[in-house]
Specification:
mainly alpha
Length: 202
């Protein structure tokens, strides 16, 4: 496996190790050993651990963007978008696990935990993620604005704040499920959507 394939394998392996051990406990030597290449070979593709994980986070985000396009590509209304966004909560998580773990094992750490640790080590990653969140909110705001124009939702809402709330609801549910394994995410996702939609339309 050479060139871009080798680089992709390194990135996926680094993410797998981080999800299993935590960002702080993954070293370049550990990654090189897992991929079965020399440290020199690893440094041929990445300047250092921070560079590797910045690109790994980009790869992860792109993977999630690709999965999102598959789910939201044919969505034509804000109601349908929000319904898919919340009701596919568990399916999105399963697809992530399959993409990075092939069903053989479950991640110990979450993406949020890895991001937090990586951001402490490299402030540029923090700024990078701020940009990613900003883009997500802008996309949701754009869909909300379209919903207002099409008469789907109320026209007296602060759409930027609603977009922040939508992201916060999704991330908050993810965080709570991390601590409470007995939470019924599918039932809660549906109820969150139902109540959010009532607030947007009544």
């Amino acid at each position: 496996m050479k060139g871009e394939d080798t680089k992709t394998k390194i990135i996926v392996t680094a993410m797998q190790l981080a999800f299993s051990n935590g960002y702080d406990y993954v070293s370049m030597k550990m990654i090189a050993d897992a991929v079965n290449i020399s440290k020199a070979g690893l440094y041929h593709h990445f300047t250092n651990k921070k560079d590797l994980f910045k690109q790994a986070i980009d790869y992860f985000l792109q993977s999630m963007a690709d999965a999102s396009r598959e789910k939201f590509g044919k969505v034509t209304s804000i109601e349908e978008f929000l319904r898919v966004f919340f009701l596919n909560f568990r399916q999105i998580r399963r697809e992530f696990e399959k993409r990075f773990f092939s069903g053989k094992e479950k991640p110990v750490y979450t993406f949020l935990e890895i991001l937090t640790s990586a951001s402490r080590a490299d402030v540029s990653i923090k700024h990078h993620m701020a940009g990613a969140y900003s883009m997500t909110r802008e996309n949701i705001t754009r869909l909300l604005r379209l919903g207002v124009e099409q008469g789907e939702i109320r026209d007296d809402l602060d759409l930027d704040i609603v977009a922040i709330a939508v992201v916060a609801l999704f991330e908050g549910l993810s965080l709570q499920c991390l601590f409470d394994m007995e939470m019924d995410t599918e039932m809660l996702s549906g109820r969150i959507f139902d109540n959010l939609w009532k607030m947007l339309t009544s």
